[in-house]
Specification:
Elements lengths: L4 E4 L9 H10 L5 E6 L11 H10 L5 E6 L7 H7 L3 E4 L7 H10 L3 E6 L6 H6 L5 E5 L14 H15 L4 E5 L7 H7 L3 E4 L1 H4 L4 H13 L4
Parallel strand pairs: 1-8, 2-3, 3-4, 4-5, 5-6, 6-7, 7-8
Length: about 220
């Protein structure tokens, strides 16, 4: 199983000083930058696009940028995010007419590819295209808004996804997004996740390093 990764979601950052916020959270020990892209169409909110991703790269951010597309259609915007400096691009299979083709497109653009599953979306797609997937992202809230509470039944889905990934023998990250906090991150890790998106649980605290340190301590105590 891959090493644990903490990926703060900039959806909860202070956008008036976003570059400083990302510098601070990476300096505090975060690994990835999680980038929530919402289109007010697939989900009922509107957030950020490729120009913000490019601006962070120009600012000097070198950490992997994990772009989560909550948009429909998907294919049109993939090349833009790849050119803007995305490392991973993940999307919801319901938002693509041709899931296999979209995964191929992401890789052709030089990024790592992934599928995102809403809480009630079955993992069926994954079994068919696992050879083209570098990350599986499981939503533990319904997408569209930050600050929601963790949906407990997703833990069973984490365990199911972990079994599928392990059986494939492939190097695939298993990411969880939604309501991840200090007091539940160990349970999520023990279910099988290795990559943890946290927004308000990090950016809503006064000391990012202390918060991330406490998360790491919980992960170190998790039994794999």
């Amino acid at each position: 199983m891959p090493e644990y990764v903490i990926a703060p979601s900039i959806l909860s950052a202070n956008f008036a000083r976003l570059g400083e916020e990302v510098d601070a959270v990476i300096g505090a020990g975060a690994d990835f930058v999680h980038f929530d892209v919402m289109d007010n169409h697939y989900v009922p909110n509107l957030t950020i696009g490729p120009l913000v991703c490019e601006a962070l790269r120009r600012h000097g951010v070198t950490a992997p940028i994990d772009v989560h597309l909550m948009v429909r259609p998907v294919d049109r915007i993939v090349p833009d995010f790849a050119a803007a400096g995305a490392s991973y691009i993940t999307f919801h299979p319901e938002a693509s007419d041709h899931v296999d083709r979209t995964l191929q497109l992401i890789r052709e653009q030089g990024c790592k590819s992934g599928l995102v599953f809403n809480p009630a979306t079955p993992l069926t797609w994954l079994r068919h295209v696992i050879d083209k997937v570098d990350m599986v992202l499981l939503m533990s809230v319904n997408p569209g808004f930050g600050g929601q509470g963790f949906i407990d039944y997703v833990l069973d889905k984490v365990a199911e996804a972990r079994e599928i990934i392990d059986a494939s023998g492939r190097d695939i990250r298993l990411e969880i997004d939604g309501g991840v906090k200090i007091d539940n991150i160990r349970r999520i890790a023990e279910a099988g996740a290795d990559t943890f998106v946290a927004g308000s649980a990090i950016f809503g605290t006064a000391d990012y390093a202390a918060t991330i340190g406490r998360m790491r301590a919980e992960l170190a105590a998790a039994s794999r």
